[in-house]
Amino acid sequence: MSESKETNTTNVAGAEKPRKQKPVFTNDSYFGFATYMKTDDGDWKFMLNWRRVIAILVVLVIIGYCAFATLRYMIDKYKREWDGASFATSFVLPFSEEARDERNKALGEFYMAKARESKTPGEVVAYVRTALGYDETNPDARISFSYLIFYQRMVKDAIDFLAEGLPVALDHKEYPTYFVRRCLSVTEDLKLVESVKECMPKLEEMIAQVNEELKDESLSDDAKKDLKARLQILESNRLVLAVGAVQASILRGYFAQAKELLDQYGLEKYVPGKVLAAQILWENGSREDAITYLDRAVDESRGDPQIVLLRALYLSAMGRTSQARYGLTLAAVRNNSPEIRIRLISALGEESGNAAMRREMIEDYIRRYGDNAKALLLLSQYATEQNDMELLTRIYNIANEKIFVELPRFEMHYLEALIVSGKPKEALLMMDKLGQENMAWVEANSAGLDGLKTIAYFKAGDETLGKLHLERTLSNRSISAAQLVIVGKRLAEIGRPDEALSAYETAFHIENYNNMVLVALVDYALKKRDVDALMRYLPRLVDSRRPPRGLLERAKRFLASDRMMFLPEAEKYYDIVSEMLKGKDGVKLFSESDRQINKSLSVD
Known about the structure:
The protein is mainly α. It contains 30 helices and four strands. The strands form two sheets. A two-stranded antiparallel ribbon has the order 1-2. It has a two-stranded antiparallel sheet with strand order 3-4. Strand 3 and strand 4 (about 45-50) form a beta hairpin. Helix 3 (about 95-115) runs antiparallel to helix 4, helix 10 (about 255-265) runs antiparallel to helix 11 (about 270-285) and helix 20 packs antiparallel against helix 22 (about 445-460). It is elongated.
């Protein structure tokens, strides 16, 4: 057998068999990654050094990943200018869900901070969107973004957006309060109650957990301090949400539900709960019981202004003005409360023979609160409602002298009083002068000014300019439904019912859920005996918040009149209104299908 054979092995019979050649890799050939090898058949075959290829690939992946992590860190640190950037976090990001969540939350907070510092609305919106992109649960970003949704008149979407974020914002200082306030302002009462019922168990569990953690004696002072601060926020939010749910139930007329929630959440040990309990008694017709409850609550709360004011309001409504004044006088001595003193001044004005005492109270009020813009605004509002030009002029001069930040609000009160008191031309001259001196003031208050100019021109007898400014008022994007209702009422007072209706209907198209707007429209329909308008808006009103009793009584009489005799729907709504007047507790009068029909009838 030839000795030139390159490989040999021993077979089963003891004979040798060929061995397989091993490729030889050297750095001189393809840097050791591959080589050519001659096979047994005499052919040359290209062979890869897989061990070295895999090793270098692993090294390249590691280097590439490190480079990518470094790039991500550099972008966060220098391009975004985020001081919270961390290379360690950037490195472990793909492998740790916890690290990703922490980074996203931190970036969300970072962009919200930039949004707060931004000067232009465009930048604010852009930063808020970015913050939500990183952390869609960020409470501050949700609050800020909801403003944009509300501005676009997408009320239902905005409330749903806020409700979606509520469960993860129960320990946020502002979110629950903002959610409750928004729901109540747009009459989303049922959504508010539903959201509170869903979130309350989780909130109470969080409170219990923090209380349990505080029992740990090994905690440091700083840790205890942080836990106590968190507990305070949680308990405050619980009170806000519970009070909001009860208030929403009362507004709807669901007094049994309101009492049930009041007891369930133990609210009567708090001042807001006492106020709500008295409201439930009063609205149920138990007026004497409500006064007795408030008498006890005044002592228990040591003369809290909310309770004192509610008691005085109820006593005045019952014609017991002297008793209301006496209680307010005692409370004014015990409390340094502008609200109580304003109500006392008002009560003195309601009783004859108290003019001198009222003037003395006003002088004392101005001495006490002459440097307090918010307190003076309360007095300014009262003077506007009373059309007291002498007092209003004095307050306006004080505000000008002190150069309050709230000066535009004082000016608006003064202008409104000038128009109502029969001096529309003087008001128009003042508005022109203010516009020449401060264009920024005009732009910031354009909605209110257009409304005032509309009333002033009509009152001055200038039809052309009155109609021109009415069109501007109705088309002003920044005007609210509440402002339009006020403009409509002022127009009705000066004998412009058609223009008043235009203001009301525009307000309805802006906020077709607004109870104030619906009350104004139904009131207009009853005064004008307008059957079409009544049947257009009454279905929405009786399915909204509990309307004023007097309005329901007028609607019942009109529904029973000859004008409604041949209208098929008249009997149905007569029965509904009668049920609302008869029942002490609110009931849901419409099915969901009926409610949708009512909505379609209202917006045609």
